[in-house]
Amino acid sequence: MRKSCKYCGRIHEGGVPCVKKPPPKSRKKAGSRESRFRNTYAWQRVRKVALERDLHLCKLCASEGRISYGKLEVHHIEPLSERFDLRLDLDNLVSLCGGCHEKADGGRVARKHLRKIAASKVPPLLFRKGKV
Questions:
Q1: Which of 14, 65, 77, 125 has the greatest count of CB atoms below 10 A from its CB?
Q2: pTM for the full model?
Q3: How many Å apart are CA 33 and CA 40, to the nearest integer?
Q4: Can you list the positions of beta strands (E) in the chain?
């Protein structure tokens, strides 16, 4: 039986595919591997551990003598696009405020320096007893 083709407008024999018919859409999830990873339970759990390890403070600001604890983000020192195998490695993660994270992503902070501050302890905040 002959049918009119909705792709080219001609008439074809039934069951014969048209050469103008587009290929089937891929069933892959939308987004990159990195963006899909950020939605996983494993990342949310490791991210929380990294923030708690860093006492919910920006490690770069703390290394420069400032205290910043607002809008913290967890930064991969070795980017996911280069070292996806280190995505859940705590030694590859450092807590940064939004401004410092932007500097780190832009390459204005050396990875060597980020590794050093990630491995260091956050200096304890000292308060005198009875005074806040």
A1: 77
A2: 0.68
A3: 11
A4: 2-4, 11-13, 72-76, 93-97
